[in-house]
Design a protein that fits this description.
Length: 411
């Protein structure tokens, strides 16, 4: 059972509590632009699963049918416990390879792009997890039932959600066995001492066993994000930027052997005679900088409001996918992807943001008139589209792009 969809209300409640707590103690760890970007990417990650339907389950059925595997009993405690522990071990190696192999880093990098660290960061997930199913195959081959495996995987991810916070200090002896907010803060940090450490999902013991553990140090405050920052709120570019640069390197490097090595060596590797497009441009990383384009208050509130409507439509599509025609699902996912891209452009104050947003609202209006969605939701979205178009053509014409943001983009 995939418990993640049922956990969504709990995730948002926990984020709200973390925000309020941070404001009360005057240590707020949320920014509206970064949070919208993280949640956009988390929603896109879930939406792409609607288009690529049941791939892991199909692999499972093929293995069971071809080899007539005997299934372990799903009502035995030892089956659940052993699957939980072994899955976390498999997750450790999937996660570690996601850092140490360039081809897999391109998929995982999106989770590390946020320069904030809060519960919203946990929802920042990739839309290009093309290799994750490989780590399920041994469980299918041994005979773990699909229901057990997918439930365990969901529980693993739900646990990981709660370690993404700056507000929980070190937890004493618990640090030796479990992944905690402290040792996971070290994992998300871009300080050199913390890079590529602490890969566990639930148990930190794997890092201690395999030599990848690093304690969070009192005299080395964790600074979050990538060592080569993304500097963008574009969720589509956030998913593909490493692969774009990897393709450039593969095309440029001479020899089949080097082309293969670039994909499977650590990120940024190149032959001695070649300068990689993925390599840091400066020898030292500026730990004090943070991407934060200045935009108008109108842009902030307008984009946040539109983001809420986009998420509402996304949740409707995800919950009702079984009753929606597949072609409509694909079109909806494409439109929602474009919507999240436009929200990012508005938060960056791009000069074409007004045009992009106007086109988005027109597309939304046409789509709602052509497709038979829930009547109440359709009415709300149509009213929003109409009011928004009028607002943009009057108040918002000069507000979605700002000289300050444009200057940051060109810097």
């Amino acid at each position: 059972m995939n418990l993640l969809l049922y956990a969504v209300p709990m995730f948002f409640l926990a984020m709200g509590l973390e925000l309020v707590y941070g404001l009360v103690i005057k240590k707020n760890t949320f920014r509206i632009n970064d949070t919208i970007n993280s949640l956009s990417m988390g929603t896109l990650s879930s939406l792409q699963g609607l288009v690529i339907l049941g791939f892991s389950a199909s692999i499972f059925e093929l293995i069971v049918r071809k080899y007539q595997l005997t299934q372990l009993p799903d009502n035995e405690t030892w089956v659940w416990v052993s699957c939980f522990v072994l899955y976390d071990l498999a997750y450790y190696w999937k996660h570690r390879l996601g850092h140490e192999v360039a081809l897999f880093w391109g998929s995982h990098v999106s989770h590390h792009q946020s320069e904030d660290y809060n519960l919203g960061t946990a929802l920042r997930q990739t839309s290009i997890d093309f290799h994750g199913f490989l780590f399920y195959i041994p469980f299918f081959a041994v005979g773990y039932p699909t229901e057990v495996l997918f439930t365990v995987a969901s529980l693993n991810l739900i646990y990981q959600f709660f370690v993404h916070t700056e507000h929980v200090p070190k937890l004493g002896p618990i640090e030796w066995v479990f992944v905690t907010p402290s040792n996971h803060r070290a994992h998300h940090a871009r300080n050199k001492i913390y890079v590529d450490r602490n890969y566990g999902g639930v148990f930190i013991i794997w890092d201690r066993i395999f030599g990848s553990y690093q304690e969070e140090l009192d005299d080395e405050k964790a600074v979050f994000g990538l060592r080569k920052p993304l500097n963008s709120w574009n969720p589509v570019w956030a998913n593909i930027h490493v692969y774009w640069r990897l393709i450039q390197d593969v095309m440029k490097v001479p020899g089949i052997s080097n082309k293969i090595k670039i994909c499977f060596k650590p990120p940024g590797w190149q032959p001695e005679e070649m300068e990689s497009a993925c390599t840091l441009q400066q020898p030292e990383v500026d730990l004090s900088s943070r991407f934060n384009p200045e935009i108008s208050s109108f842009s902030k509130f307008y984009t946040f409001a539109q983001f809420i409507f986009t998420v509402a439509l996304s949740l409707y599509v995800m919950v009702n996918v079984g009753s929606i025609d597949y072609s409509v699902t694909v079109a909806s996912v494409a439109f929602l992807t474009y919507s999240f891209y436009v929200h990012g452009a508005c938060m960056e104050g791009r000069s074409n943001a007004l045009l992009l947003e106007t086109c988005r609202l027109v597309m939304l209006t046409i789509g709602l008139l052509l497709v038979d969605f829930n009547a109440t939701l359709t009415s709300i979205l149509l009213v929003n589209a109409g009011v928004s178009i009028v607002t943009l053509l009057t108040v918002g014409r000069s507000q979605l792009a700002t000289p300050e943001a444009a200057a940051i983009q060109s810097a």
